[in-house]
Write a structure and sequence with these properties.
377 residues, alpha/beta, 2 domains, 25-stranded mixed β-sheet, 25 strands
């Protein structure tokens, strides 16, 4: 019976098949079996997964900030170069000097802010002060520069206990410069801020405060120096009797103090030498990162002197007429040559005493020699 059914099915398949198309033999009954579970599993396996994309680079905030800072610095440098190229093509013309008088009482402060130009401030003996401003403007042509210089105005504002001075440039100004000559009333102080230019101070009996970005500062015959500071420039302070505490600092430049009498004086330079000559100070602090320190002055009885240099030598030479002193000197990479009685003496550390030892010197250098001696000894 089974054979009869299979034969009938085969005959129907042959009749239904198109001519010329070969037929595959039908499987035999014993071959009609379910595939094994293993082969079915293999048929159902998913295709291999595509490779994982590469991991994104790790974000480093510090590196991002550093990269942004480098790009900003590059942009600023390009802007400065472009501005400098434009200035080189400008024509500069001076206008007529501007002058004004003002009144102030002893103890008042004259405030001055300037972008570019030299400033000279002198103490006077009258009750009235005077300002002379020498103006200069730059333009693409001489006519433009002359017009811009003519538009510059001197402004003087009187306030209780202070006088504010400024020159207002034209709103169209590209470059300008103002040099000031100021005479102060007696007992009046000054507060000067200058971006670029030298500052000279003389005979001022009131408070003195100066801050400059680029330029030398000189002062003589001053009485009440509160602060003298410049980012780039030398500072020279001479022939002055200072009341109170004075702070004198430069970032890049030398500092010289000579012929002074001071109760408390702080001198500092990041990159530059510091020289103290013929000065009488009750308390002196000197610090420099890269520079030598020279103290060539008599010690004051009971005086305290602290001098530190990271990369520089320290030389202390006291006058024969000065007070006795004791000292403590230390250096990491240098030698010590010191006079004195008793104490400790080695190439890296030394203590000692000269005379009654009433004054005291603390001397420290990381890379540099230290010398201590007394003239006439």
């Amino acid at each position: 019976m089974t054979n009869l059914v299979l034969g009938t099915v085969l005959s129907m398949a042959v009749a239904a098949a198109p001519a010329g198309v070969p037929l595959e033999p039908s499987p035999r009954p014993h071959e009609l079996q379910q595939p094994s579970s293993g082969s079915a599993t293999a048929d159902r396996q998913a295709p291999p997964a595509p490779p994982a994309p590469p991991a994104p680079p790790r974000h480093d905030p510090a590196e991002a900030r550093a990269r942004a800072a480098r790009e900003a610095a590059r942009a600023r440098a390009q802007a400065r170069a472009a501005a400098g190229a434009r200035r080189d093509r400008w024509v500069y013309v001076s206008g007529e000097p501007l002058s004004r008088t003002f009144t102030a009482r002893p103890g008042d402060i004259v405030e001055l802010s300037n972008m570019a130009g030299d400033i000279v401030v002198t103490g006077g003996s009258a009750s009235e002060g005077r300002i002379v401003a020498h103006r200069k403007a730059g333009g693409s042509t001489e006519a433009e520069a002359r017009a811009l210089a003519a538009e510059m105005r001197l402004e003087v504002e009187q306030h209780p206990q202070r006088v504010v001075i400024r020159v207002q440039p034209s709103s169209r100004a590209n470059a300008y410069r103002v040099d000031y000559q100021i005479t102060l009333p007696q007992g009046v102080g000054v507060d000067v801020r200058n971006a670029s230019g030298a500052i000279a101070l003389e005979g001022i009996t009131g408070d003195v405060r100066v801050a400059a970005m680029s330029g030398d500062i000189t002062g003589q015959r001053l009485s009440r120096v509160r602060s003298l500071k410049t980012m780039s420039g030398d500072i020279t302070l001479t022939s002055s009797t200072l009341e109170g505490e004075a702070d004198v600092q430069t970032v890049s430049g030398d500092l010289t103090a000579s012929g002074l009498k001071a109760r408390a004086l702080t001198l500092g330079s990041v990159s530059g030498d510091v020289v103290v000559k013929d000065a009488q100070c009750e308390r002196l602090t000197v610090r420099t990162v890269s520079g030598d320190i020279v103290f060539a002055s008599p010690a004051v009885a009971g005086g305290r002197y602290e001098m530190k240099s990271h990369n520089g030598s320290i030389s202390v030479v006291t006058g024969a007429g000065g007070a006795g002193f004791s000292y403590e000197a230390q250096t990491v990479k240098g030698d010590i040559h010191a006079e004195g009685d008793g104490g400790e003496s080695s190439p890296r550390r030394a203590t000692g005493r000269v005379g009654d030892g009433s004054a005291f010197f603390e001397l420290t250098s990381f890379v540099g020699d230290i010398e201590v001696k007394r003239q006439g000894r």
